[in-house]
Predict the 3D structure of the following.
Amino acid sequence: MRQHAKRSTATALRREMTQAEQRLWFHLRRRQLGGYRFRRQHPVGPFVVDFICIERRLVVEVDGSQHLASATDRARDAWLRGRDLRVLRFWNHEVLERTEQVLSAMLQVLGEASPIRPSGTFPRERGKDR
């Protein structure tokens, strides 16, 4: 997917967030969770992730039942982890019914996560420009 198309997709996804994504964003925006900055529906490589804390290299995905046993999600997670990103996945019902536990789990991982590389950027794929 071309860069412009990814940005357009990300913008559309921000407008069409699920109820669970909206609830989580309510708690993540404006550095409300431990002072960490999160971005929502953010392009990373060929993907648009639900939430990302670049500073702590943490991706958070909120999924519905259509993602149950998804080979695509496993491949996506492997790609992200291959770029030194940690990936947390929560089900929609977890976010909606156990919001505090989800936020606590995220805070724990944020405390354990490796900080961003000194260069301040994600590793680039070889031979590719921005």
In short: The radius of gyration is 14 Å. The longest helix spans residues 99-112.
